[in-house]
Specification:
heterodimer, A: 320 residues, mainly alpha, MetI-like fold, 2 domains, two-stranded antiparallel ribbon, B: 384 residues, alpha+beta, 6-stranded mixed beta sheet
C-alpha cells in the first residue's frame, strides 16, 4: 500500500458520486416499472415479459369486438370470448422491459426530431461563435489599437454576468422582434461568446508574432491571417471550446423552455424529456431514462472522438 | 531598378527613441549587412523597411517610389525570420507556395473546394507547383516537399524559409538573423550558400545580424549600428582597417581591439610615460585613445614600449592569442602571435611588446577618429 492510498480513495469516492446518476439512468432504462418502483433486479433487471399498461388499456375488448370475434370462438359464451380476447391483447402488448423503454422513448415523442433540433441549434451556435470569436481574439491579442486593454477588460467583465440575470430582457427583446418560437430565438442570444473570445485570445497570445509578420509579408490581409493561419493553428483550443459550447447548449433546458412555447417541432432534447413527466397516471421512468440515455450518448461519443485529436493536436512545434 | 532609400527614419516606442534618424542608400543588387549589439535598433529598422512597423518620421522608398505608407503585403519584399515562421499546418510545398497563391490567384480561386473549378485555377496551380519545384531544387529540399515543418531539422526549416522568400521575384530580400538558430558548423555552410545565392540571384539583400563574422564574410557593405544610429557604412575591409569611431573598431574584429590611453605632452605623444614620437606638431587634444588590433602588437626583447605578464593563452592552431596584463596599470591587451612564438608566451611569462604607430588608430576622448593626428604622428619620427 503506497502512502498515496487516501488520495486514491478520495478520487474513487468522487468518481462514484459523479457516475452514480449515470448508473441509475442507464439501469432504469433497462428495467420494468415494477422493478424500478421496488428497486430490485440489479443493473439489467430480470428482463421478464411485461405488459404495456397503456397498450392494454387502449385495446380493452368492448361489445363490438366480442360480436366480431364470436365467429372465431364458436360455441363459447360472451365471458369466455372476452377472456380469450383479453389474453390475446395481453400477448400482443407484452414485451421485454428494455424494448418497451426504448421503443417508448422513440414513439411517445418525436425524439429523432428533437435530436435533429439539438444538432441544428448547437452546431449553428458553435459556428457563429467561431466566426465572431476568432477575429475578435486575434484583434485583442495581436493588433495594437487605442483602447484595446479597455475592450479586453469589458470582455472579462462580461464573463461575470450570469445568463439568468439577462434572460428576461433577452426574452422581451426577442418577443418584440417576433422571434420567439423560432430557431433564431434558440441560437441568436448565444452567438457572441465572451468565454470563447477570452479562451482564443489566451491561445493566440502564445502564437509567435513572427508567424503573423511572415503571413503579412506573404501578402495576406488581416482577415486572411485569421482564417488561413490562426484558425488551423488553433484547432486544439477550438476543440476545447467546442466541448464547452456544445455540451452547454445541447444540455440547456432553461433557455429553450423560455423561448419555445407550444411549438413542439422546435423542442430540443432536454425539452423532449418533459414528455415523460407523469401527470395523473404516474411517471414513465423507464422510457424517460431511455430518452435521457439516448440524449447523452452523442455527447459522450463526440467527446471520446475529440479527446484523441485534443491530445495529438496540431502543435506549434514547427515554429522553432 | 529597385534601389532602396532610407531617409532620416526615426522610431520612438513611447518615451524611448529606438532609431534616431537613420539614412541609408542601398543600390540594386547590393548585399548590405546591418550589424550591431542587441538593442541597437537594427531589427526595428528592418521591420520598418519591411512595412511591419511604421516609422515615427522619415521615408522609405523602393525604386524611387515612396512606400512609407504602403502595407507590408504591397511592398514586394520578402523576409526570412530568425524563427523561420513556417506555417505549422502546411507542408513544405504549401508553405513555399503561399506567397504565390496570395499574389497570383484571385480570392475565388483560393477557396478550398470551389476554387478548383474556378476558370484558370488549374493552370495557375500548375504554374505555382512548377515555381515551388524550381525553388526547392535550388535549395536542395526537393525530397522534403510533402513533410510538415515539425518533421524537419533546423537547417531544413531554414531552407524552407529561404525557399518561401525566393519563390517570387521580390525587390529585395530582408533577412533577420537567419542563421542564429543553427549550430556552428551548419552556420558556416549556410553562410556560404546565402552568399552564393546572392551572386546567383543578383538581388538586393538586407541582412541583419549581431555576428560580425557573418557581416564581414558575406556583405558588399556593412552598416554598423549602435544606439539607434548608423555609425559607419562601408565595405568590410574599410570597416575593419579604417573605422570612423572607436565603437565600430571595438565591435568589429575578434579578439577585440586593444585600447590604450595616449597623452600629448607638448610635442610628444606618450603611452604610460613611454614616448611614442617626439616633435609631434599636431594641435590635438591633450588626452586621446590609441586603438591597436591584436596583430599590430609584436613581441620584442629590445626597448619594448609595453611590458607585462601573460595571464591567458589561447592556441587556435594556425595562430595564438595571448592576453598580457600590463605592468603599468594592470589592464589587459590581446596579442596575436605565430605558433612558433609559443614558447615565449607561457603563462606568467614576462614579455615586452612594441608596435608601429602607422598601424595604430587614434581616437579622441569621445571616440571619434582623429585621422589628421595619426598622419602627423606617423610622419613625425621621419621629420625627427
Amino acid at each position: 500500500m503506497t502512502r498515496d492510498w487516501w488520495k486514491h480513495m478520495v478520487l474513487i469516492l468522487g468518481t462514484i458520486i459523479v457516475l452514480a446518476p449515470f448508473y441509475m439512468m442507464v439501469s432504469y432504462s433497462f428495467k420494468s416499472p415494477g422493478e424500478i418502483d421496488r428497486g430490485e433486479g440489479g443493473f439489467f433487471g430480470r428482463q421478464e415479459m411485461m405488459i404495456d399498461p397503456r397498450c392494454a388499456a387502449l385495446r380493452q375488448p368492448d361489445r363490438a369486438d366480442i360480436e366480431a370475434a364470436r365467429a372465431r370462438f364458436a360455441g363459447q359464451d360472451d365471458a369466455s370470448v372476452q377472456a380469450s380476447l383479453l389474453a390475446e391483447t395481453e400477448a400482443d402488448c407484452s414485451m421485454r422491459p428494455v424494448l418497451f423503454n426504448y421503443s417508448k422513448a422513440f414513439t411517445e415523442a418525436p425524439l429523432i426530431r428533437y435530436l435533429l433540433n439539438g444538432v441544428i441549434v448547437t452546431v449553428s451556435i458553435f459556428l457563429i461563435q467561431i466566426v465572431v470569436a476568432l477575429p475578435a481574439a486575434y484583434a485583442l491579442s495581436k493588433l495594437k489599437f487605442w483602447g484595446r486593454d479597455a475592450v479586453f477588460g469589458l470582455v472579462l467583465f462580461c464573463l461575470l454576468i450570469p445568463v439568468h440575470a439577462i434572460a428576461l430582457p433577452l426574452y422581451i427583446g426577442l418577443a418584440k422582434l417576433g422571434l420567439t418560437n423560432t430557431y433564431a430565438a434558440l441560437v441568436v442570444p448565444w452567438t457572441i461568446s465572451v468565454f470563447g473570445i477570452f479562451l482564443m485570445r489566451q491561445f493566440f497570445m502564445t502564437v509567435p508574432d513572427d508567424l503573423i509578420d511572415a503571413a503579412r509579408m506573404d501578402g495576406m490581409s488581416e482577415l486572411a491571417i485569421v482564417w488561413r493561419v490562426m484558425l488551423p493553428t488553433a484547432i486544439p483550443a477550438l476543440l476545447a471550446f467546442a466541448i464547452f459550447s456544445v455540451v452547454a447548449h445541447w444540455n440547456d433546458y432553461f433557455w429553450p423552455r423560455i423561448v419555445v412555447t407550444g411549438n413542439r417541432d422546435l423542442f430540443t432534447p432536454p425539452l423532449g424529456l418533459r414528455e415523460f413527466k407523469g401527470d395523473g397516471d404516474g411517471s414513465f421512468f423507464g422510457p424517460m431514462m431511455a430518452t435521457a440515455t439516448v440524449i447523452v450518448t452523442p455527447l459522450i461519443v463526440a467527446f471520446l472522438l475529440a479527446q484523441r485529436r485534443f491530445i495529438e493536436g496540431i502543435t506549434l512545434s514547427g515554429m522553432k | 531598378m529597385s534601389d532602396l532609400q532610407i531617409t532620416s527614419v526615426t522610431k520612438d516606442f513611447g518615451e524611448t527613441s529606438v532609431l534616431k534618424g537613420v539614412t541609408l542608400d542601398v543600390k540594386d543588387g547590393e548585399f548590405i549587412s546591418l550589424v550591431g549589439p542587441s538593442g541597437c535598433g537594427k531589427s526595428t529598422l528592418l521591420r520598418i523597411i519591411a512595412g511591419l512597423e511604421t516609422p515615427t518620421s522619415g521615408n522609405i522608398s523602393i525604386g524611387g517610389k515612396d512606400v512609407t505608407q504602403l502595407r507590408a503585403a504591397d511592398r514586394n519584399l520578402s523576409m526570412v525570420f530568425q524563427s523561420y515562421a513556417l506555417y505549422p499546418h502546411l507542408t513544405v510545398a504549401e508553405n513555399i507556395a503561399v506567397p504565390l497563391q496570395m499574389r497570383q490567384m484571385t480570392a475565388l480561386q483560393r477557396l478550398p473546394v470551389l476554387g478548383t473549378v474556378m476558370p484558370g485555377a488549374r493552370i495557375q496551380k500548375q504554374d505555382i507547383a512548377e515555381a515551388v519545384r524550381n525553388a526547392a531544387e535550388m535549395l536542395e529540399i526537393g525530397t522534403l516537399l510533402d513533410r510538415k515543418p515539425g518533421q524537419l531539422s533546423g537547417g531544413q526549416r531554414q531552407r524552407v524559409a529561404l525557399g518561401r522568400a525566393l519563390v517570387r521575384d521580390p525587390a529585395a530580400f530582408l533577412l533577420d538573423e537567419p542563421l542564429s538558430n543553427l549550430d556552428a558548423k551548419l552556420r558556416v555552410q549556410t553562410r556560404a550558400e546565402i552568399a552564393e545565392l546572392h551572386r546567383r540571384l543578383k538581388a538586393t539583400f538586407i541582412y541583419v545580424t549581431h555576428d560580425q563574422v557573418e557581416a564581414m564574410t558575406m556583405s558588399d557593405r556593412i552598416a554598423v549600428m549602435m544606439g539607434g544610429e548608423i555609425l559607419q557604412c562601408a565595405a568590410p575591409d574599410v570597416i575593419y582597417e579604417d573605422p570612423d569611431d572607436i565603437r565600430v573598431a571595438e565591435f568589429i574584429g575578434s579578439p577585440k581591439i586593444n585600447i590604450l590611453p595616449v597623452e600629448r605632452n607638448g610635442t610628444e605623444l606618450t603611452v604610460f610615460d613611454q614616448v611614442l614620437s617626439s616633435h609631434f606638431y599636431g594641435d590635438s587634444p591633450k588626452v586621446m585613445q590609441l586603438g591597436l588590433r591584436p596583430e599590430a602588437l609584436r613581441l620584442t626583447q629590445s626597448a619594448p614600449l609595453l611590458t607585462g605578464r601573460v595571464v591567458h593563452f589561447e592556441n587556435l592552431g594556425s595562430e595564438v592569442f595571448a592576453q598580457v596584463a600590463l605592468d603599468s596599470d594592470g589592464s589587459r591587451v590581446t596579442l596575436r602571435a605565430m605558433p612558433a612564438q609559443r614558447q615565449s608566451l607561457g603563462l606568467g611569462a614576462q614579455v615586452g611588446l612594441t608596435f608601429d604607430l602607422s598601424a595604430a588608430m587614434i581616437f579622441d576622448a569621445e571616440g571619434a577618429r582623429l585621422r589628421r593626428v595619426e598622419l602627423a604622428a606617423t610622419r613625425a619620427p621621419e621629420v625627427a
